[in-house]
Task: inverse folding
């Protein structure tokens, strides 16, 4: 007898550990860079970009060269802001980060954190002032409030807000007019951006510019002796889940299921996106508690297209399986456990998507007393039904009261609580 059990993972359930997005692949003097689900784009106006020694920027620096004082493992923006341009208000370089690369929307529902090094000034000479403006948009295309863009400032740095934008000024005053204020070179400003709970982050925009002043007469470009160029560097991004949120996944898994025939189990799984995914470990268990490695399968590294995997193992080692995913940096996470046995019959859930009713078709050999539960993607139970009739093989569930969205149909044994299958469904 051949059986199939399908287990579709909730996108927010697979990995809740913090993840890092690196600038290491950014091309020197490039304008775009894609890694995982993020695409970064750099635009500029009325500026030239160089690292002061003739090497083009933007540029990735694995270590801090000391001069300039970049953060190790950062994207450097070395820019000639202060040399005889005529449109000070239009002079800037902007880094835009979009977290929907490949059409996916599995950005972070928690917080994003990074640092910006060397937002400073030289007011004693009235020669320059760094200003950084930070804004963000969530997955609902709503501006994230400035109050949710938190800057932990070092000494001699000031901040203010304008609408939904956080403005950081490189001296101990929010003024952008020429003056004598306090400034600290090579300082480090920590930025934390938190979208609303359960809402994905879509974009972050960092605009780096000189102090414009209130008029051309007191703008920094118009007085004093100016440096040839000025710079900041932006560290890797760390994405960390909140209590009710999800995080950018090392992989976005769309399915994990198994079939069994002639005492051989074939496990199959698919990913929609992968980020720094080194390999998978397939583990097998007799009791669902103690697992042993039975196969190792290379991952796709970083991918934004569907990738399909499979492994064949003897069923003698047990009917319980799980996947462990391992990043290139050694971080790991694992799926929930699925059950695959040759005595298991098919379970069908249809239509999908649905409007009001869902049909669950099962064979009584699947379990003595089926228990059907519906959960939302946060794990909250929104529906439950125990099937008591011995020969009932088809159950119609009235779900018209549920809100539009994604749900998980979990079928288990009401006496042993052994899970038979999980299926993701969508309500229109």
Result:
């Amino acid at each position: 007898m051949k059986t199939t059990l399908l287990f579709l993972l909730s996108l927010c359930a697979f990995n809740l550990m913090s993840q890092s997005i690196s600038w290491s692949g950014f091309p020197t003097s490039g304008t775009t860079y894609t890694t995982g689900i993020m695409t970064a784009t750099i635009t500029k106006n009325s500026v030239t970009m160089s690292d002061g020694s003739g090497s083009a920027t933007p540029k990735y620096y694995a270590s801090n060269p000391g001069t300039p004082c970049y953060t190790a493992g950062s994207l450097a923006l070395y820019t000639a802001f202060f040399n005889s341009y005529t449109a000070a208000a239009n002079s800037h370089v902007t880094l835009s980060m979009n977290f929907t690369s490949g059409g996916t929307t599995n950005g972070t529902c928690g917080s994003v954190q990074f640092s910006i090094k060397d937002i400073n000034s030289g007011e004693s000479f009235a020669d320059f002032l760094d200003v950084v403006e930070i804004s963000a948009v969530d997955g609902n295309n709503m501006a994230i409030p400035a109050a949710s863009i938190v800057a932990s400032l070092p000494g001699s740095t000031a901040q203010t807000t304008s609408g939904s934008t956080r403005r950081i000024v490189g001296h101990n005053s929010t003024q952008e007019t020429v003056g004598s204020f306090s400034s600290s070179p090579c300082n480090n400003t920590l930025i934390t951006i938190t979208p609303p709970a359960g809402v994905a982050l879509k974009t972050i925009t960092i605009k780096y510019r000189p102090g414009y002043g209130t008029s051309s007469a007191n703008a920094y470009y118009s007085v004093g002796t100016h440096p040839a160029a000025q710079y900041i560097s932006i560290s890797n991004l760390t994405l960390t889940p909140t209590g009710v949120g999800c995080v950018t996944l090392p992989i976005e898994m769309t399915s994990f299921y198994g079939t069994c025939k002639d005492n051989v189990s074939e496990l199959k799984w698919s990913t929609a996106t992968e980020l720094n995914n080194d390999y998978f470990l397939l583990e097998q268990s007799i009791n669902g508690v103690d697992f042993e490695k039975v196969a190792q399968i290379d991952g796709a590294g970083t991918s934004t297209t569907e990738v399909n995997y499979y492994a064949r193992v003897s069923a003698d080692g047990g009917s319980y399986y799980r996947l462990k995913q391992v990043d290139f940096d050694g971080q790991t996470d694992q799926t929930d456990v699925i059950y695959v046995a040759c005595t298991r019959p098919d379970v069908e859930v249809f239509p999908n998507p649905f409007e009001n009713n869902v049909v669950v078709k099962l064979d009584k050999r699947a379990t003595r007393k089926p228990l059907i539960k519906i959960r939302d993607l946060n794990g909250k139970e929104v529906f439950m039904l125990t099937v008591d009739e011995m020969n009932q093989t088809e159950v119609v569930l009235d779900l018209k009261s549920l809100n539009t969205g994604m749900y998980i149909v979990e079928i288990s044994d009401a006496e042993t609580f052994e899970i038979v299958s999980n299926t993701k469904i969508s309500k229109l």
